[in-house]
Write the structure tokens for this entry.
Amino acid sequence: MITRALLADDRTGKWFLAIVLGLAIVVPILHLAVPETSPFHISTATLALLGKYLCFALLALSLDLVWGYCGILSLGHGAFFALGGYAMGMYLMRQIGTRGVYAHPVLPDFMVFLNWKELPWYWYGFENAWFAFLMVMAVPGLLAFVFGWFAFRSRVTGVYLSIITQALTYALMLAFFRNDMGFGGNNGLTDFKDILGFPVQANTTRAALFAASAVALALGYLAARAIVSSRLGKVLVSIRDAESRTRFLGYRVEHYKTFVFTVSAIMAGVAGALYVPQVGIINPSEFLPANSIEVVIWVAVGGRGTLAGAALGAVLVNYAKTTFTTGLLAPYWLFALGALFVVTTIWLPKGILGKFNDLWERWRSSRAEKTETKPAPVPQLAE
Amino acid sequence: MLKRRNVLAGIAATALAGGALLAGASLAQAQDTIKVGVLHSLSGTMAISETTLKDTMLFLIEEQNKKGGVLGKKLEAVVVDPASNWPLFAEKARELITQHKVSAVFGCWTSVSRKSVLPVFKELNNILFYPVQYEGEESERNVFYTGAAPNQQAIPAVDYLMSKEGGDVKRWVLAGTDYVYPRTTNRILEAYLLAKGVAKEDIMINYTPFGHSDWQTIVSDIVKFGSGGKKTAVVSTINGDANVPFYKELANKGVKATDIPVVAFSVGEEELAGLDTKDLVGHLSAWNYFQSVKNPANDEFIKKWQAYTKNPKRVTNDPMEAHVIGFAMWVKAVEKAGTFDVDKVIDALPGIEAPNLTGGISKMLPNHHITKPVLIGEIRADGQYDVVWQTKDLVPGDAWTDYLEGSKDLEADWVGKKCGNFNTKTGKCGS
Amino acid sequence: MHRFTRIALLIAALAGGWLTGPATARAAPEDLAAGLALMAKDSFNDTAAGIDAIARSGAPHAAALIEALQDRRLLIGGSNQKIYYRDAAGSVRDAATNEVVAAPPADLSAARMNNRVRTAASAAMGALSLMNPDPARRIQAAQAVMKSRDETALPVLDAAIAAEKDATVRTELQLAWAAVTFVKKDATEAQRLEAIALLRNSGTRDALSILRTLPADTAGPAREAATSAISSIEQRLQLWGYVQNIWYGVSLGSVLLIAAIGLAITFGVMGVINMAHGEMVMLGAYSTFIVQEFFRGYAPGLFDYSLAIAIPLAFLVAGGVGVAIERGVIRHLYGRPLETLLATWGISLILQQAVRTTFGPTNREVGTPQFMSGAMEIGGLVITWNRLYIVIFAALIFVGLLLALRYTPLGLHMRAVTQNRRMASSMGIRTGRVDALTFGLGSGIAGLAGVALSQIDNVSPNLGQSYIIDSFLVVVFGGVGNLWGTLVGALSIGMANKLLEPYAGAVLGKIILLVAIIFFIQKRPRGLFALKGRAVEA
């Protein structure tokens, strides 16, 4: 099978997929079937949290694909995430129907509120699940394609690219904050009722959304792994390490970059779409440049260029965030987060998983030396 | 070199883990207390406003415990930091309710944070006291709105400015930050002004983004609009951070309150604390409370608050008073119900009366809003307000405004009709 | 009522000379008494009416009374709610008799004020001080009358114009006369035409505002003259409006320049992406706050000089923190620009939270020194002093920096290290030290930006965040490694923003600009003024 072929050489990946798919099965069971009194029961709060972590993990994975393997440091990946989220949010808004406070059959509450008379054209079609789900991938994908097409063709690289991706998400944030845009302004989209006919707040729906997030993460991992372990992936890595040389060898660097950037944006969009029904709101602050920068640190903490590490980083950092923002330590959370950035970049440049892999390799090679084998080359990250 | 890195990474990891343990330990507390959730941002952009409210709640709970708690039980505040992040508000609300089993939550500032937590409060059936003036157009069973609805702030302020005493204003600039509260308030005001015979061309509406800092163009537009030969006033729903540069530009351009008065709905003592007010004397704010209101209840509150915060200059403001009233109402409702049970407390709350700090008695209405006086204050050189006008009676909060198409037929009544959006035309709840 | 008597009395009072005996004899005590009785009610409408009555009473201490009201020295109290006032010397006087009260009642409270009362008081003071010996006061008075357009002041105005020697004051008085005459019901056509001509010549917005209140009964030549005057002033103001917009653009541009120029050093010269740059600006602003607090506490009289201390202090504080960051963190990350971005972002979070913990999350008050508040007018252009000083300050920093890079040993070393680090190192330049100092310089300049921004923006922990994206865009747009590029970038972004704003609105204008910059960078990936080199990848 393809999967097996992909994972043949990927020890971490096997573990990662096993854990993620295991979670997809075990967590919903523990949530739905185990009685609340049992210590093994997973509460709705925990389920929602875990679901959120998985969506973030997929987002981190998508960023790692472009940053870790192609050297494109996007500081605007939150924009793709948010666009996917908005597409999903629009679908969910249209599902509310007459259950809104003004009971308008077509217009969402905020439009009634602002005295809009009819649905803007870009809301058409979002009442259909298939259309909305298509848009979840199409909108971020298209934006990334167009943006990438221009940026990579004119060889905007490195820091410059980072800064204009940041400008992109910032511009989108300002745009979505505008009430005239018809996306609910600062309040965003909220108070969702149904998804595919099931109430979003029901435990079974939550469990299903969680499972869907886990499956999406697993699929995202497989897709990313397929890309990076193919011949194309090798070209990507060579672009990362020596872009000009790759170009001189006759590769159309911009095509590779645009492709991987678009795929990554689609993954981020899917993550956003799964995130929205689980947290119950989508709002322009998802476009905040600071959010996108935070995603980068998840990847850096977990291990850039390791895929599984990125996902791990997202979960770890967000777990820490959840823990730190309650109780006495709440005001000091930013100190911890800030210190994490500094510590990781200086002392853990390869992240947790990278470090672990290094140690593992060293341990193996020290064993191998005894048996007179050549040590496996350690992949180096170059800048 | 590598060794050192390892060690340092290890230290960092230990520190993180230790922090997590500490945080965990603070959660495990004695069970004979009743927990009250405090859901205000302590970091991020909203910390500027919300931190004070967190302190207020801690202060109120401490005071209540000094009096012996509620129903013989001590209260314990559970403080969480939603970090000005709206999805995090929902998550933290869920955490407060399911993990900490709080009996009520006092929190939120922005409308979006309230909208974000609403589904959680509905699903898990708990109580939220929301202390900030807002756009209305909402009434939920689980939420009690102790801040002002538009009819308790905006409309009286405009009435005052239109009066002879207030300056006989004929021309209006409605300036706001582009989000739902200014949008709604301005729509309501526009409808109201047109109904009062103000011509359409005598109303200018302007929206700016959050944190707007360069006001040169807009202030000169206002001055230009003000030279139309009629007395002009600005109704400002400019939010938070953008106010300081706005007022600085006004002061420097020499826009005096006697020429073009600015009446603000989101600027209070706390916001003025960051400004030099000597050039702003006479500009106005409309609130339901000012620190400078003279009466024994307020004097005592200010004295205790400043002692609690150990800062003799610490100011009080309107949303703080809303929490004071809301908390007092909750305590009374719990005592009336004889239990902390959420459903019973929700049912007990309408009709509860509690003294406000301006000398009146506020009452919780069946629509979950409260009665409040409306006060208009002029800025003084010392950063406080002179109350120049005040409603004779308390004004009942109106959840659904009468000036908007969609909402004028709606009515909220959680006592008789058990409905937050009862349509008087169709006679049905919700449609 | 007895308008003519009153006017006659007023003229008599004035003719009798300012504050001299004869006027007292001919005053109308019933007006004073009525005015005081109205004021004693302490309701705004009554107080305003009371002011008018007192002003026309001709009582010698009428001006003193109204001034006392304006300064909140007018007191109400006693057994029968009588009016007193505290004079400049601090003793309490009876308002009716103007005699010092030895034992004032204990329950005196200041009369309440609002905008209506303030307007009435300044109008009355205007009419009363038209003959004041101080020319500045006379100008104020004339402007107050122009605003109030109080017909009863007309005879005094005539007398004042006749007696006026000072040309500037005379113009102001005439304008006031024109304003009053223009709206006066029974003005003759000749008077009205003269008034219109005067207003038209002044060409100000105030004049326009008056002309627009053309009484409905005006007909014939006066109406025509007024209409043409309105359009003439409007045209003039529109032209000035364009100039004004350009000035706004320059002003916004210089704010951007001041915020970005430190970044141009750290990012442009050193290639370090300092995401904590905004926090350096914030530290500068907080240094200003601390210095001002110190002045408020210990030397309030010298407050206007506080910025003289704040500027070097902000430079040192931010520069010191910058050196510490460079030595502590960035040193380990050279050659890895994206990692420095992350590490400095972490530092920015720490600094923000540190300031929030130390100073609290709320805005801090940074005062504006006297010489920086207010505005000046050049023709139809209103230039606020604080903005003008910021433009000058930005220019000084820019020139200073250029000179420092060109002519100081540090500048020489900096350029050497930028151009060829290894070569410079071989020539004996201690590159590490140069790096630290360069970063310190960039941060210190950010600190200076903080001093400037504290004058126009919030001083809060979020201050830096709001400028960081704009600063980066300015540097990238202008071209990295080139101070002139930063200057041109800042000014053109500022200008474009301000020229777009009137048409697209503040939000949409900014979005359009951001998109335009994104497209621009696609076209010229190295910015406006790219450093030319042979490297394929700079």
